[in-house]
Amino acid sequence: MAPTKKVGILGATGTVGQRFILLLADHPVFTIHALGASSRSAGKAYKDAVKWKQAKPIPDNVENLTVKACISEEFKECDVVFSGLDADVAGDIEMDFLKSNLVVFSNAKNYRRDPTVPLIVPTVNTNHFDLIPYQRTINKQTKGFLITNANCSTTGLVVPLKALQDAFGPMSHILVHTQQAISGSGYPGVPSLDILDNIVPYISGEEEKMEWETSKILGGSDGKQFLPLTDTIVSATCTRVPVIDGHLESVSVKFANGCPSVEDVYKALEEYTSEAQTLDCYSAPKQAISVNKAADRPQPRLDRDMDKGQTVTVGRVRPCPVLDIKFMLLVHNTVLGAAGSSVLNAEVAVAKGLI
Ligand SMILES: NC(=O)C1=CN([C@@H]2O[C@H](COP(=O)(O)OP(=O)(O)OC[C@H]3O[C@@H](n4cnc5c(N)ncnc54)[C@H](OP(=O)(O)O)[C@@H]3O)[C@@H](O)[C@H]2O)C=CC1
Ligand SMILES: N[C@@H](CC(=O)OP(=O)(O)O)C(=O)O
């Protein structure tokens, strides 16, 4: 068996960091080697630094690790560094790590728009790893590179859209309305007096991110640059609802080349397979899309943990009287929508020989 890769986790005490720890605790390829967080946590044992909010306990091999400052020197032995850092600090820290020839998989928004940084949803566009040799050339790196994963709501959206794009060609119009879980805003996140018995019809910056990230992810790449979609209009409305985990999204699409039938849409969703699955990666879901035809599904509480939280559940496919087809989807926002994407992206990078 190949030796395992040593991994570091930045932002290890946060909501996404805790997910990283659970996903990596007994991983066959990656071994947790170093944990980083702010100066509030550095120097403490992990169990004393973290406000652990997961149903499973802190893994035994992690609870007594000493949390380090997020300085590249402290992580130089790591083959892979996962970042769940607060976006206010992620930009400088991740750049320091990249310049130190480290491999970084980031959840933060800071570099998603960078024309040299792939924005990868692992069950959608792992072909964008093709840009890594070029990124290494321009950064003069032999080993290091930087990959970002997408906003959690964008992640859920692009998986079924990719299946529809592959089957029926380009989409000219996409309307999406999200109902997002509170874990998406970290801890302590939205005040309880704002969210209990309520829905907040605004999440700062979220709609813009969904609109442009979708076109970068579903667009192409020529090995040196991304070719975002130019003929697809995306309009997003994002809301916060009193659910702990799992973003529910209502989507309507219009196709450039005519409207497929509901049956054909279901078939395309059911048959969709991504490269991460064909590479047999450990964290890849059996199905990138789980179709549920029950009239009242998907639902956050019932569907978010499907296939380890790495699958997107789609249901309620029906004709749209305004556009062509509409449906509902559910994505686990802190698994596939965050840490799970990074881990699966890293597994794909190992399979492609990039790490
Ligand atoms: N939650 C979600 O569903 C998603 C989140 N993301 C992104 O992932 C990132 C993390 O989000 P989330 O886990 O929710 O955030 P949290 O607020 O829960 O955690 C933030 C982490 O960053 C650390 N941190 C804060 N300031 C510093 C600093 N100055 N130096 C080093 N470390 C610091 C914190 O350490 P300490 O405990 O010591 O303060 C903590 O570990 C964000 O960029 C977010 O936008 C992306 C997709 C989905
Ligand atoms: N804004 C998302 C979570 C998040 O942090 O997204 P991003 O990484 O795009 O800032 C949510 O509230 O559910």
TrEMBL record:
<comment type="pathway">
    <text>Amino-acid biosynthesis; L-methionine biosynthesis via de novo pathway; L-homoserine from L-aspartate: step 2/3.</text>
</comment>
<dbReference type="InterPro" id="IPR005676">
    <property type="entry name" value="Asp_semi-ald_DH_pep-lack"/>
</dbReference>
<dbReference type="GO" id="GO:0009086">
    <property type="term" value="P:methionine biosynthetic process"/>
</dbReference>
<keyword id="KW-0521">NADP</keyword>
<dbReference type="GO" id="GO:0046983">
    <property type="term" value="F:protein dimerization activity"/>
</dbReference>
<dbReference type="Pfam" id="PF02774">
    <property type="entry name" value="Semialdhyde_dhC"/>
</dbReference>
<protein>
    <recommendedName>
        <fullName>Aspartate-semialdehyde dehydrogenase</fullName>
        <ecNumber>1.2.1.11</ecNumber>
    </recommendedName>
</protein>
<comment type="pathway">
    <text>Amino-acid biosynthesis; L-threonine biosynthesis; L-threonine from L-aspartate: step 2/5.</text>
</comment>
<dbReference type="InterPro" id="IPR051823">
    <property type="entry name" value="ASADH-related"/>
</dbReference>
<dbReference type="GO" id="GO:0051287">
    <property type="term" value="F:NAD binding"/>
</dbReference>
<dbReference type="GO" id="GO:0004073">
    <property type="term" value="F:aspartate-semialdehyde dehydrogenase activity"/>
</dbReference>
<feature type="active site" description="Acyl-thioester intermediate">
    <location>
        <position position="152"/>
    </location>
</feature>
<dbReference type="InterPro" id="IPR012280">
    <property type="entry name" value="Semialdhyde_DH_dimer_dom"/>
</dbReference>
<dbReference type="Pfam" id="PF01118">
    <property type="entry name" value="Semialdhyde_dh"/>
</dbReference>
<keyword id="KW-0486">Methionine biosynthesis</keyword>
<feature type="domain" description="Semialdehyde dehydrogenase NAD-binding">
    <location>
        <begin position="6"/>
        <end position="132"/>
    </location>
</feature>
<dbReference type="InterPro" id="IPR000534">
    <property type="entry name" value="Semialdehyde_DH_NAD-bd"/>
</dbReference>
<dbReference type="GO" id="GO:0009088">
    <property type="term" value="P:threonine biosynthetic process"/>
</dbReference>
<dbReference type="InterPro" id="IPR036291">
    <property type="entry name" value="NAD(P)-bd_dom_sf"/>
</dbReference>
<keyword id="KW-0028">Amino-acid biosynthesis</keyword>
<keyword id="KW-0560">Oxidoreductase</keyword>
<feature type="active site" description="Proton acceptor">
    <location>
        <position position="247"/>
    </location>
</feature>
<dbReference type="GO" id="GO:0050661">
    <property type="term" value="F:NADP binding"/>
</dbReference>
<keyword id="KW-0791">Threonine biosynthesis</keyword>
<comment type="function">
    <text>Catalyzes the NADPH-dependent formation of L-aspartate 4-semialdehyde (L-ASA) by the reductive dephosphorylation of 4-phospho-L-aspartate. Mediates the second step in the biosynthesis of amino acids that derive from aspartate (the aspartate family of amino acids), including methioinine and threonine, the latter of which is a precursor to isoleucine.</text>
</comment>
<comment type="similarity">
    <text>Belongs to the aspartate-semialdehyde dehydrogenase family.</text>
</comment>
